[in-house]
């Protein structure tokens, strides 16, 4: 199931409404050119002072299976189960220091914007992409000698869409479940903060 538009209350752009986080992946390679397009989309994300504090460590299964397997080993066991057919892992890093070597308080926010751009580009290319916080960030940073100024925030797995029926029953059910979000009234306040009743 690749087409699952969000049941929005008002119309929004189809690229945004259509993006979701699948777990059913097909076991076939993703072209390197498609991976480069994902990174190019991320490169053009907005950032405070145009600092561009995002960095990505990319692992392609067909290009370097050993490095891919090492990176894969840092996913938590649950994420390893459904990522068996993942073809690309993109580790999203935030550069926590600015050009002057001072702390950048916007680094994680800006890196998140770049990650969303990458996810939207994946959806535009009809690729399945799923961002995960379930990984051993410190272990990854140590194993791949990531400099101290960078913090690993998430891992995005990428593949072609697969058959949800091939997933374990509980995950297949989640794959087909209706999409839901908090209401606008729950997330947005107009004119200032109003205490809950």
TrEMBL record:
Name of the protein this chain belongs to: Oxidoreductase
Similarity comment text for this entry: Belongs to the nitroreductase family.
Pfam families per the UniProt record, alphabetical: Nitroreductase (PF00881)
Top-level division of the source organism's lineage: Bacteria
GO molecular function: oxidoreductase activity
Alphabetical UniProt keywords: Oxidoreductase
Organism in which the protein naturally occurs: Caballeronia cordobensis (Burkholderia cordobensis)
Record-annotated Nitroreductase domain positions: 16-84
